[in-house]
Amino acid sequence: MTAAAHVIGWGKYVPVRVLTNEDLASMVDTSDDWIRTRTGIAERRVAVDGETTASMATRAARQALGIAGLNPIQLDLIVVATATPDHSFPATACLVQDALGAAHAAAFDLSAGCSGFIYALSVAADLIACGAYENVLVIGAETLSRITNWGDRATCVLFGDGAGALVLQANGGDGGVLSSVLGADGSGGELLCLPAGGSREPASHRTVTEGRHYIQMKGREVFRFAARIMPQATRQVLERAGLDISDVNLIIPHQANQRIMDTATRALGVSPGMVFSNLERYGNTSAASIPVALCEAVEQGLVHRNDVVVCVGFGAGLTWGAAAIRWSVPLPQEPPSRWTQMWYRINYVYAGLRSWVRRLLRRLLALWTRE
What we know:
- This protein has about 375 residues and is an alpha/beta fold.
- The protein has a single domain (about 5-325), classed as Peroxisomal Thiolase, Chain A, domain 1 (3-Layer(aba) Sandwich), CATH 3.40.47.10.
- The protein has 12 helices and 13 strands.
- It has helices at about 20-25, 30-40, 55-70, 90-100, 115-130, 155, 205-210, 220-240, 260-270, 280, 290-300, 340-370; strands at about 5-15, 20, 45, 75-80, 105-110, 135-145, 160-170, 175-185, 190-195, 215, 250-255, 310-315, 320-325.
- Strand 12 (about 310-315) and strand 13 form a beta hairpin.
- The radius of gyration is 21 Å and the shape is globular.
């Protein structure tokens, strides 16, 4: 029997710092009404000094593992979807693997813009289905505030920071990730991009002074693309799963713009209550938006056992993707006991100590071999 990838844990983290529309109005020529009318956003979260994509991803991952009741040592694979990694290399997933103490897990990053989490979820589910792995941690995490031009009214009002995570586990029972659909159109790559910092346009005095290390977007073109592709991908993933839109209990779209979500809702012919939105409080967190929204939907009691949930997104590339999930975990979940939580904390302290010792041994070995 082919195993399916079942969601057994979920977690999220958003920075404590809140940047409101009023705050932005003191920075650029804008207003709360202008932003709300065009985007539906009221505020967003911004990473504080010391917070990074890896640190936020780790916090979301710990919460997801706690709900799953899974020790990090049991993980086989960690996939981090991000457009804002801590470094070009090593992969942010490797930093998370080390922080968690997931000593037996392979780890890699995946870049597909705001569609990244759906891409990562699809890859993880397929690897579980083919028997390669049993327990996989999938994370979407972004620190978009570090690549946002806070003087550009067209983009600075949109983006925020955060991280969301799911734990997937192989199970022969009904449910789990039923199907996924991925797509790309590279001819639209220029519509949403970070021009400099790669091998084509390395960092230089010119690229810095010209603002080439900030997000650049052609909003109207992206809007038209998103409004068309979101309902299309939703229908395709349901058809692949042998389902109809009437079988869906909840849709979790990429949280980019409320008008895009409203347009897609009308195109699908569903009620607004079927489409979850937390955009107003977080803005567009790219690859983190879908897992953060899914976590909040679960926390708010909007997801029940045997519900069909469709996650759908679009992003830079241009890319798009959708996943249909039949929720198989009983809800609400029993929170971990106090002793279990204490055990988790001890494990993470041990992970940090283990990492420090391994680094020290490498340095000592290097000194010894040099002599």
